[in-house]
Amino acid sequence: MKTLFCVPFLILAAAYSGRGQIPDKKISNLAFISGKWLAETDWGQMEENWSEPLGNCMMCSYRCVKDGKVVFY
Prior knowledge:
Blueprint: H1 2-15, E1 35-41, E2 44-50, E3 60-66, E4 69-72
Antiparallel strand pairs: 1-2, 2-3, 3-4
């Protein structure tokens, strides 16, 4: 009976053994998002501008324009 209890416990322990690793958290990993992004939706024309990573940060500006008027920024 103890063996039947231990087997599922060991399987769970083995499955979660790699979960304690710390992921690589560098701002440079987000460099792919830098640039100008455009989209047209029912809400209007959307524009995002992302800067390159610099000084351990990135900047973004956003606006949504519909019928020639700013809806959100």
